[in-house]
């Protein structure tokens, strides 16, 4: 048995002009790639402002862009949250996760995310409990189901984490 191929893509590009027109949207090449590969599963890391930004919902360009990719069956979207290598107060992390989870309540479009991408993660045993708490919180903040939580230390992690 072979595992299905999947792509994780950090979409750290502002979706300019996406509200105006799909053809003008900065994410148009992304849309075309996703649609041209319907049997390939994509996980897109959404990062409006090194986190969800200041409001309860993203701006109109992000709303349009996220709704467009969420309409595709081969796409999952997850929100970027930084943890400053385990030094960021857990309350700040939780606040940003809660904002992302709240996107599911936006009634005009489907901008609900499928989970969280935890960036700037520490790779040592001393922060294992911190990241366990981060993961647990994400799983409780999002609607029940298949919440995806990814941890990105950017370097190898200790074997004890597995």
From TrEMBL:
Top-level taxonomic group: Eukaryota
Protein known as: Spherulation-specific family 4
Annotated source species: Exidia glandulosa HHB12029
